[in-house]
Amino acid sequence: MTDRFHGEEMVYHSFDCAVDDPRKYYPSKFLNTLTPNGLPPHLLKLKINCPVILLRNIGPSNGQHSGKRIFLPWITFRPSDDEMFPFQFKSKQFPIRLSFCMTINKAHGQTIPNAGIYLPEPVFSHGQLYVTLSRSIARTNIRVLAASVCDNKKNKIKWQKK
């Protein structure tokens, strides 16, 4: 997706190491291949104006909020799921990930200029629908694709029940 953006692509590598591994059983090349939830990718490829999402709170109390230019520090991450691997490791990388789409819950509190909403199933609650439709600046900037089942014999829409 970054190919569609103009400008030079910059590649940022993470620094990965195992915790308490004096014999180097887990080399960095192996750790670079791991992708636990909540950690940025080993290779972070960015171009100017690519949409990104923060993976950690950097400091909202210090005025670091959406739309403000901030310095992104390298942050050391440790996967929180201890049962995923038989060892612990840490990864140092920018706390961001490319974000061309997001869930309804992640969109809460954000203003999005143009919103394309894909609803393969009905929303869980009216509150989710409100959050989804109220993120855009103007209702003309919202496009919704909602899946439905059509009964051609009666020309009525039937909603699937699970």
TrEMBL record:
Domain DNA helicase Pif1-like 2B residues, every copy: 29-67
InterPro entries linked to this entry: P-loop_NTPase, Pif1-like_2B_dom
Source organism per UniProt: Eragrostis curvula
Name of this chain's protein: DNA helicase Pif1-like 2B domain-containing protein
